[in-house]
């Protein structure tokens, strides 16, 4: 018979699957006005929820076809005269005011263009929902992507201009990887930028000279892995040093920078990086798990960055991914570089094989 | 009465514009439930955007749209288009963006906007003080440090930065962002090649460690500046660290020791050095850094494999990895 204290401790580390399923379901429906700042990134929020449900093996609770249509309505397609090719990709939402449409040609609008993170999450979301990407204008996406890369190898988010850094290199690498076409980026320049972002302490910053950080380190390593250039770009000595920087981020859960508090999302950013570097197995799974679960919201579901804080879709998703990495039962495995389930990844591989077969039969 | 004024205002000033609603189609996903006021502002914003109208009313509306959602990058871009098209007062825009950043210092768009305005004005004179103020509220704000590095590098404002760094390290010697800035400044000014500078920095680190031993940032900096300049060959360093080990020990000190021994082994594979390294790994794994026990044991195996007696035979590690080539035979 468990004592009240033991019972309390057991409950505290109990993983509340159903609450998380409902959390993601609600996220996909309606959010209150205080979430206004997420408007232009709604597609990334959808990705967190949909991929989260996939990790939970609960995609059956949503209407996949309707969601697929909504994603396609966000595609910026070429206009009749193809004058907007360098602006193609996916939008984050309907905020510009283009009338709903899932097919081309594109509508000419002075300010309509794709956003690299939305193109990335649009493609991953379609894959997760089982779509075959046949309505994606791949050449247009790649043209739009190419237009975003700068001389120094980094990417902007949008053709109108924005900040440029390693986050968008990661998005670009994911896009090229999924579309199985690296003509959308200059890999060599991207590698140079990534190398240039390595700090004296062997983590990666957002760009040269900037403070090393768990999120940017993930972007750096995952990008190189997706490019298939990890061991070409970094020496064994450098890789060992990076492993050390990453593994020192574990405090209980993980933090993103030395002397900063831990935060649930780094259980994925740093955890996945360690996995890609083959040393995640040497971390302390129990302490990591206990931290992630301490940030679980037992009432509304989801996870927050810290205990007793409000959950949000990003931390809910990455908390799950963090648990998946340590082998939490009943969670699907996650591809550590692409950040989708292995199931969705296998679907992608099958699609890519079909594309290759079809390309072979065209004369 | 106020209600009527608002209605009349919109009839008078916006009557010619057909508001453009958002259109998510029959099955919207992640829909945000906006109030009528919010939708009104943005419906008119979308109408102006469609026409690419360049007017004062458009400029005024961008401020309203920003107040409702400062993360909308399209609004900021349109505002920049208008700033130039209408030849707006950029000094006033600097005051505006200063206020917004003070309210929302972790937003990417506002910092990007400020950078654009500074570039147009070609005037960085307010920047260091402004950023210092933001950092006084959150000394680790990544955007602030990024903007600071951009300003300093772009306009060559290196002169007083090391002093700024030292002041902040006095306030919080564990602020990793400041240690990073220290490296940024020195590597772009004097560099670390001269023995005088390198030694000064090594001593600075050790002094900070004496004051606050459990500080990963200081140890990372020390290792960072020495790792490609001969960690084990820096005169007197190993001795100083071994001394500190008695009174100011930490997992970081011990990890640094392992790295020193590894560096020494690469130049001169001695059994005694290897044994010391393995001992420290064991100490870390079992007592001083147990959360990383498996990692320290892995490192121990790796060192054993690379430098130990079995290295000569080239046998693979239990992990399945091959030891690197070029092992020195023990004489």
TrEMBL record, chain A:
<comment type="subunit">
    <text>Heterodimer of FNTA and PGGT1B. PGGT1B mediates interaction with substrate peptides.</text>
</comment>
<dbReference type="InterPro" id="IPR008930">
    <property type="entry name" value="Terpenoid_cyclase/PrenylTrfase"/>
</dbReference>
<keyword id="KW-0677">Repeat</keyword>
<dbReference type="InterPro" id="IPR001330">
    <property type="entry name" value="Prenyltrans"/>
</dbReference>
<keyword id="KW-0637">Prenyltransferase</keyword>
<keyword id="KW-0479">Metal-binding</keyword>
<keyword id="KW-0862">Zinc</keyword>
<dbReference type="GO" id="GO:0005953">
    <property type="term" value="C:CAAX-protein geranylgeranyltransferase complex"/>
</dbReference>
<keyword id="KW-0808">Transferase</keyword>
<dbReference type="GO" id="GO:0004662">
    <property type="term" value="F:CAAX-protein geranylgeranyltransferase activity"/>
</dbReference>
<dbReference type="InterPro" id="IPR041960">
    <property type="entry name" value="GGTase_I_beta"/>
</dbReference>
<keyword id="KW-0460">Magnesium</keyword>
<dbReference type="InterPro" id="IPR045089">
    <property type="entry name" value="PGGT1B-like"/>
</dbReference>
<protein>
    <recommendedName>
        <fullName>Geranylgeranyl transferase type-1 subunit beta</fullName>
        <ecNumber>2.5.1.59</ecNumber>
    </recommendedName>
</protein>
<dbReference type="Pfam" id="PF00432">
    <property type="entry name" value="Prenyltrans"/>
</dbReference>
<dbReference type="GO" id="GO:0046872">
    <property type="term" value="F:metal ion binding"/>
</dbReference>
<feature type="domain" description="Prenyltransferase alpha-alpha toroid">
    <location>
        <begin position="15"/>
        <end position="340"/>
    </location>
</feature>
<comment type="similarity">
    <text>Belongs to the protein prenyltransferase subunit beta family.</text>
</comment>
From TrEMBL, chain B:
<feature type="signal peptide">
    <location>
        <begin position="1"/>
        <end position="17"/>
    </location>
</feature>
<keyword id="KW-0460">Magnesium</keyword>
<keyword id="KW-0637">Prenyltransferase</keyword>
<keyword id="KW-0732">Signal</keyword>
<dbReference type="GO" id="GO:0005965">
    <property type="term" value="C:protein farnesyltransferase complex"/>
</dbReference>
<dbReference type="Pfam" id="PF01239">
    <property type="entry name" value="PPTA"/>
</dbReference>
<dbReference type="GO" id="GO:0005953">
    <property type="term" value="C:CAAX-protein geranylgeranyltransferase complex"/>
</dbReference>
<dbReference type="GO" id="GO:0004660">
    <property type="term" value="F:protein farnesyltransferase activity"/>
</dbReference>
<dbReference type="GO" id="GO:0004662">
    <property type="term" value="F:CAAX-protein geranylgeranyltransferase activity"/>
</dbReference>
<keyword id="KW-0677">Repeat</keyword>
<comment type="subunit">
    <text>Heterodimer of FNTA and FNTB (farnesyltransferase). Heterodimer of FNTA and PGGT1B (geranylgeranyltransferase).</text>
</comment>
<feature type="region of interest" description="Disordered">
    <location>
        <begin position="308"/>
        <end position="331"/>
    </location>
</feature>
<protein>
    <recommendedName>
        <fullName>Protein farnesyltransferase/geranylgeranyltransferase type-1 subunit alpha</fullName>
        <ecNumber>2.5.1.58</ecNumber>
        <ecNumber>2.5.1.59</ecNumber>
    </recommendedName>
</protein>
<keyword id="KW-0808">Transferase</keyword>
<dbReference type="InterPro" id="IPR002088">
    <property type="entry name" value="Prenyl_trans_a"/>
</dbReference>
<keyword id="KW-0007">Acetylation</keyword>
<comment type="similarity">
    <text>Belongs to the protein prenyltransferase subunit alpha family.</text>
</comment>
<comment type="function">
    <text>Essential subunit of both the farnesyltransferase and the geranylgeranyltransferase complex. Contributes to the transfer of a farnesyl or geranylgeranyl moiety from farnesyl or geranylgeranyl diphosphate to a cysteine at the fourth position from the C-terminus of several proteins having the C-terminal sequence Cys-aliphatic-aliphatic-X. May positively regulate neuromuscular junction development downstream of MUSK via its function in RAC1 prenylation and activation.</text>
</comment>
């Amino acid at each position: 018979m468990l004592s009240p204290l033991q019972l309390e401790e057991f409950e505290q580390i109990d993983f509340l699957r159903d609450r998380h399923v409902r959390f993601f379901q609600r996220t996909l429906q309606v959010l209150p006005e205080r979430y206004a700042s997420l408007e232009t990134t709604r597609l990334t929020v959808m990705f967190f929820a949909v991929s989260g449900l996939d990790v939970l093996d609960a995609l059956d609770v949503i209407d996949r076809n309707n969601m697929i249509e909504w994603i396609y309505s966000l595609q910026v397609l070429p206009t009749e005269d193809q004058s907007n090719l360098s602006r193609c990709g996916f939008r984050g939402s309907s905020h510009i005011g283009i009338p709903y449409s899932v097919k081309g040609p594109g509508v000419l609008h002075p300010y309509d263009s794709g956003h690299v993170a939305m193109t990335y999450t649009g493609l991953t979301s379609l894959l997760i929902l089982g779509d075959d990407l046949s309505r994606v204008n791949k050449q247009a996406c790649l043209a739009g992507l190419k237009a975003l890369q700068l001389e120094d190898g980094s990417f902007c988010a949008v053709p109108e201009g924005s900040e440029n850094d390693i986050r968008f290199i990661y998005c670009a690498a994911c896009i090229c990887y999924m579309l199985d076409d690296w003509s959308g980026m200059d890999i060599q320049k991207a590698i140079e930028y990534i190398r240039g972002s390595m700090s004296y302490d062997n983590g990666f910053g957002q760009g040269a000279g900037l403070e090393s950080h768990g999120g940017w380190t993930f972007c750096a390593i995952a990008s190189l892995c997706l490019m298939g250039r990890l061991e070409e770009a970094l020496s064994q000595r450098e890789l060992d040093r990076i492993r050390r920087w990453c593994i020192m981020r574990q405090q209980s859960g993980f933090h993103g920078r030395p002397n900063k508090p831990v935060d649930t999302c780094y259980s994925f950013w740093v955890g996945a990086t360690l996995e890609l570097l083959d040393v995640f197995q040497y971390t302390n799974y129990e302490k990591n798990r206990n931290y992630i679960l301490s940030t679980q919201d037992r009432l509304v579901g989801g996870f927050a960055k810290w205990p007793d804080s409000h959950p949000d879709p990003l931390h809910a998703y990455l908390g799950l991914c963090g648990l998946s990495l340590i082998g939490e039962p009943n969670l699907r495995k996650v591809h550590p570089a692409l950040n989708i389930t292995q199931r969705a990844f296998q679907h992608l591989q099958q699609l890519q094989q079909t594309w290759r077969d079809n390309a072979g039969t065209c004369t | 009465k106020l209600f009527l004024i608002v209605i009349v205002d919109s009839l008078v000033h916006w009557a010619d514009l057909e508001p453009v609603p958002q259109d998510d189609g029959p099955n919207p996903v992640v829909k945000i439930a906006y109030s009528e006021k919010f939708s009104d502002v943005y419906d008119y914003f979308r109408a102006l955007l469609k026409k690419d109208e360049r007017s004062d009313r458009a400029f005024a509306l961008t401020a309203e749209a920003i107040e409702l959602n400062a993360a909308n990058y399209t609004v900021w871009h349109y505002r920049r288009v208008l700033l130039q098209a209408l030849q707006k007062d950029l000094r006033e825009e600097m005051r505006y963006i200063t206020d917004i950043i003070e309210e929302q210092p972790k937003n990417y768009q506002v910092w990007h906007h400020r950078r654009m305005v500074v570039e147009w004005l070609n005037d960085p004179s307010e920047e260091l003080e402004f950023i210092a103020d933001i950092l006084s509220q959150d000394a680790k704000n990544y955007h602030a440090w990024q903007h600071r590095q951009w300003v300093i590098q772009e306009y060559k404002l290196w002169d007083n930065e090391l002093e700024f760094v030292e002041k902040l390290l006095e306030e919080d010697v564990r602020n990793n962002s400041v240690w990073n800035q220290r490296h940024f400044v020195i590597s772009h000014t004097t560099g670390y090649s001269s023995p005088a500078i390198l030694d000064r920095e090594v001593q600075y680190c050790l002094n900070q460690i004496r004051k606050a031993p459990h500080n990963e940032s200081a140890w990372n900096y020390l290792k960072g500046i020495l790792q490609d300049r001969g960690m084990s060959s820096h005169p007197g360093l190993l001795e100083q660290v071994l001394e500190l080990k008695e009174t100011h020990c930490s997992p970081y000190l011990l990890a640094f020791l392992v790295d020193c021994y590894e560096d020494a082994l690469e130049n001169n594979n001695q059994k005694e050095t290897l044994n010391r390294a393995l001992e420290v790994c064991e100490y870390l794994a079992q007592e001083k850094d147990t959360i990383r026990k498996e990692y320290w044991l892995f490192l121990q195996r790796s060192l054993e494999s690379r430098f130990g007696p079995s290295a000569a035979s080239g046998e693979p590690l239990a992990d399945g990895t091959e030891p690197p080539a070029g092992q020195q035979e023990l004489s």
